[in-house]
Specification:
The chain has about 325 residues and is an alpha+beta fold. It folds into 3 domains: about 70 residues, Structural Genomics Hypothetical 15.5 Kd Protein In mrcA-pckA Intergenic Region, Chain A, CATH 3.10.290; about 80 residues, Pseudouridine synthase; about 160 residues, 2-Layer Sandwich (Pseudouridine synthase), CATH 3.30.2350.10. Helices cover about 20% and strands about 25% of the residues. The chain has 8 helices and 18 strands.
């Protein structure tokens, strides 16, 4: 294997049956070191950036046979096109390599259709200028993970390419071999019968409603650890009407906590995508708690803890974030139910 600029060359080994093109490339150390995820590799294949035996290959699932020569050209990171904006940021930590933000609910992380301005990326460019890592591409400079628009809490952003590569490896490993933790507080309908547990259920995009995710046998591995912190109210059968649950991610799939808690019968309060059918439960609450639930404008989810080794210095960093005012108010009213 050799590398020239942003072009990588590989030769398929002689052992084993033919492999999928995207899977073969995702297993190459050189691409891992360049922080090219399997998702990014698939996109490059579809964009015509990969040749097999000199012929452009656009199918990520195409089989590659033994001794096949493969060339992948990764375009250089484009300059950040989103405009710099003076948007206030709650900065928890900042150094030369990374910045940790306590994101408010309602702030979109990166530009997309319908949200070309007013995003966290616009704010970061305004704050950091051109120092953000370019590995994420034009729309996502420095972004190694994301929070939904209506989820509040802690989010780390890379300011250098070295930090980006280190953080990408941490998030891919999910704490299996290093000290790394992402914990969330969620207010859910009802309460699990046990005080703690694990949801292991693969997640994929919904076949028909593309804005939704769903548990699916053919989905990507997804694991959520949960622990009940408190329960609130009681229905006619004496069961809790709501609960505060702490969730720890072992993987990081889109909408993972929202999908997994709904999957076990306890969707998040305020989640209009995965928990709309549970809104009538609010009628079982006292008036003040009922009004607090009915007026809560978002899914009740907050990224409360982020703990990780610094991707450059190795120093262990551990950050905590208290729930914002709207979530504290909801919890307070439910606690009086």
């Amino acid at each position: 294997m050799s590398r020239s600029g942003s072009t990588y060359h590989f030769v398929v080994g002689a052992d084993g049956p033919p492999a999928r093109l995207d899977l073969f490339l995702s297993r190459q150390p050189a691409l891992d070191a360049a922080a090219l995820s399997r998702t990014r590799i698939r996109a490059l294949i579809e964009q015509g950036c990969v040749r097999v035996a000199g012929v452009v290959a656009r199918d990520p699932a195409a089989k590659v046979a033994a001794a096949a020569e493969i060339e992948l050209t990764a375009p250089a990171p484009a300059p950040a096109e989103p405009a710099a904006e003076k948007i206030p940021l709650n900065i928890v930590h900042e150094d030369d390599a990374l910045i940790v933000i306590d994101k408010p609910a309602g702030l979109v992380v990166h530009p997309a259709a319908g949200h070309r301005a007013g995003t966290l990326v616009n704010a970061l460019i305004g704050h950091c200028g051109a120092s953000l890592s370019g590995i994420g591409g034009v729309q996502r400079p420095g972004i190694v993970h994301r929070l939904d628009k209506d989820t509040s809490g802690l989010l780390v952003v890379a300011k250098t390419d070295a930090a980006h590569r280190g953080l990408s490896k941490l998030f891919a490993d999910h704490g299996r071999t290093t000290d790394f933790a992402r914990e969330y507080l969620a207010v859910v309908w009802g309460a699990p019968e046990r005080t703690s547990g694990v949801v292991e259920a693969p997640i994929a995009r919904h076949a028909h409603a593309r804005e939704r995710m769903t548990v699916a046998r053919a989905g990507r591995e997804a694991i959520t650890h949960w622990r009940v912190e408190a329960t609130y109210g009681a229905d006619k059968a004496g069961k809790p009407i709501a609960a505060l649950v702490r969730c720890r991610l072992e993987t990081g799939r889109t909408h993972q906590i929202r999908v997994h808690m709904a999957h076990i019968g306890h969707p998040l309060i305020g989640d209009r995508v995965y928990g709309a059918g549970f809104r009538t439960k609010a009628a079982q609450l006292p008036e003040k708690a009922r009004k607090a639930v009915e007026s809560f404008p978002r899914q009740a989810l907050h990224a409360a803890r982020l703990a990780l080794p610094h991707p450059v210095s190795g120093e262990f960093l551990d950050f905590a974030s208290e729930p914002p005012a709207d979530l504290r108010s909801l919890i307070r009213e439910l606690a009086c139910a």
